[in-house]
């Protein structure tokens, strides 16, 4: 009996499962974003997958990263996946929150499901000489307005206008209208705004100036901050988002 008690733990010891060593998402808007991850384990890593959910969409996507073993450390793998957003069907507006988790499996069938991480898909066309984002933010509650350059006052005006609109409408619509984040990206001129919008025909691009556009299913709003109708546009378009949440969707 004593021998059995002594030897039992060692005979049933299991190898540790996979570990997520590091991860990052790099915005390359408008082309897309690049997902990178490092994973390790006592057994060979057989798959590294990422599960993505864009904005407030209830369904997500599941994709496998291409990976290879790290030189000098065969228990460590580097994985990468590029998610394209430059087409009409795959477009994601800048400023959208992307939530993601990793699922890693090894040759022994052991699996790791990570916690959920958040990433803001910012417009990567505007970075400094060192590659750092030039975007800054002002926020109030669940509403955030991203801006760049010396236009903080204008961003604050747009934020204030949106908050005033919500203060009037949430008592009618319900608190679920603001339960999830509302992200606003403010552009300073028509050219910047045009290149951030979903792909469209050349004729429409020439003839139509878009002051603002709401992407109701993901909770994101783009607004032309330099436009004379910017405040009215921001108020109008945020209504599209909250009416969708309380009237048109699973919310």
Structural account:
With 251 residues, this protein is an alpha+beta fold. The chain is 25% helix and 37% strand. The strands form 3 sheets. Strands 3, 4, 7, 8 and 9 form a 5-stranded antiparallel beta sheet that branches. A hairpin with a 2-residue loop joins strand 10 and strand 11.
Strand content: 35-45%
* Total helical elements: 5
Average pLDDT figure = 88
* Strand segment tally: 14
SSE topology string: HEEEEEEEEEEEHEHHEEH
Q: Based on CA inertia axes, which overall geometry fits?
A: elongated
Helix percent band: 25-40%
Which regions contain 5 or more consecutive residues with pLDDT less than 50? 1-12
User: What summary fits the major beta sheet?
Assistant: 5 strands, antiparallel
Whole-Å distance between the termini? Answer: 61 Å
Radius of gyration: 23 Å
Based on secondary structure, the structural category is: alpha+beta
Features:
disordered N terminus, elongated, 5-stranded antiparallel beta sheet, 5-stranded mixed beta sheet, alpha+beta, 251 residues
What's the short story on this structure?
The chain is α+β, with helices and mostly antiparallel strands and 251 residues long. It has helices at residues 2-11, 152-173, 190-196, 202-207, 230-248; strands at residues 19-28, 32-40, 45-54, 61-64, 66-70, 73-84, 96-106, 111-113, 117-121, 136-140, 143-147, 182-187, 212-215, 220-224.
């Amino acid at each position: 009996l004593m021998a059995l008690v002594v030897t039992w733990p060692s005979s049933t010891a299991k190898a540790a499962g996979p570990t997520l060593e590091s991860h990052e998402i790099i915005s390359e808007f408008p082309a897309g974003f690049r997902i990178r991850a490092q994973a390790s384990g006592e057994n060979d890593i057989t798959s590294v997958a990422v599960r993505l959910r864009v904005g407030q969409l209830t369904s997500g996507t599941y994709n496998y990263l291409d990976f290879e073993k790290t030189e000098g450390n065969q228990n460590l793998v580097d994985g990468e996946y590029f998610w394209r957003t430059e087409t009409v069907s795959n477009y994601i507006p800048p400023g959208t929150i992307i939530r993601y988790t990793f699922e890693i499996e090894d040759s022994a069938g052991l699996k790791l499901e990570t916690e959920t991480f958040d990433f803001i898909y910012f417009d990567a066309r505007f970075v400094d000489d060192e590659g750092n984002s030039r975007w800054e933010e002002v926020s109030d509650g669940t509403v955030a307005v991203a801006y760049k350059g010396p236009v903080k006052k204008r961003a604050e005006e747009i934020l204030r206008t949106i908050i005033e609109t919500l203060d009037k409408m949430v008592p009618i619509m319900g608190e679920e209208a603001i339960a999830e984040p509302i992200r606003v990206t403010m552009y300073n001129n028509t050219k910047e705004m045009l290149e951030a919008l979903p792909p469209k025909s050349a004729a429409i691009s020439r003839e139509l100036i878009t002051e603002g556009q709401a992407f109701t299913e993901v909770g994101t709003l783009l607004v032309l901050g330099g436009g004379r109708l910017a405040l009215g546009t921001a108020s109008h378009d945020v209504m599209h988002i909250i009416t969708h949440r309380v009237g048109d969707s699973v919310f």
